[in-house]
Amino acid sequence: MPKIDAALIQQIVRRLSVPGRFLYGFLKRYGDQVHYPEHPTLVQDRYNLAQFEISNYREYIQRSIYYLGYWEIRETRLLRKILRPGDTFVDVGANIGWFSILAAQLVQEQGQVLAFEPSEVLCGLIRRNIEVNGLKNIQLEKLALSNRSGRAQLIFPSAINQGAATLRPVDSETSALPSEEIETIRFDEYDWPQQPDSIRLLKIDTEGAEPLVLEGMANLIQAQICEFILFEISRELGSERLPLLSLFPSYDLFRITLFSLIPINGSRTELPDQTFNVLACRKGHSDVARIRSWWTL
Q1: Superfamily covering domain 73-296
Q2: pLDDT tens for residues 136-155?
Q3: Is the dihedral of CA 14, 19, 24, 30 positive or negative?
Q4: pLDDT of 89-141, one tens digit each?
Q5: Disulfide: which of 8, 117, 129, 234 matches 275 by Cβ 3.0-4.6 Å?
Q6: pTM of the model
């Protein structure tokens, strides 16, 4: 079978708004026949907010941005719905910088973005994307947030999914996997360059290390400095659901679905078994009703 040009697939996917599930099905079947560029490519996101340099076309996140122009569309919708010019956004587990770069454009020059990413390789990709977009309002920290300040091992369980890197303990399952020694810090101990009075949105995606991250920012949560907190719960990766949710007595909690935000009332039976994302909203926040109507976006 002759090679299929990746750029042609990209044009078709974007012009016809092909859903990701159909694209991934096609690539699973014919991926070996796809010819990718030999050099990094700059691609525009679907919202015309920023450009991203794609260098690994088979890596899961970069592949999605290359073909579809987005990554994690539900959470990206929320980001665009919540952030305003002048806001502060904190990105914990920034990966290649998808959310950080978009956020920097949304909050504009008068706002600020603080991105935490412990991986040396991923920090390099973020720096490149910051440079490509000429951004001056992102503070990148090569650190992992955790429940203690010190050193830890960052485990890389997948070569084709850089977003799967995790602080899971080294055991019989992870000891043979590639790893990188990194620095960890409690967010409550972090010395801000310019500490804001309020954080509009804090996003956490640390592949099962969310309990450690949240424990290390207990004072910040208790003080309700964050208006909105977006985080992942994964039983498979070690995030116990109800104990984790109990950390937010001053927040209303919502499970994120494709077209709505479903209230979480603390019942074990109402939570799905699979991985899902949660939006914590400071109780009584005036923007909650507008944000819950996000399917009009």
Answers
A1: Vaccinia Virus protein VP39 (3.40.50.150)
A2: 999 999 999 999 999 988 88
A3: negative
A4: 999 999 999 999 999 999 999 999 999 999 999 999 999 999 999 999 999 99
A5: 234
A6: 0.90
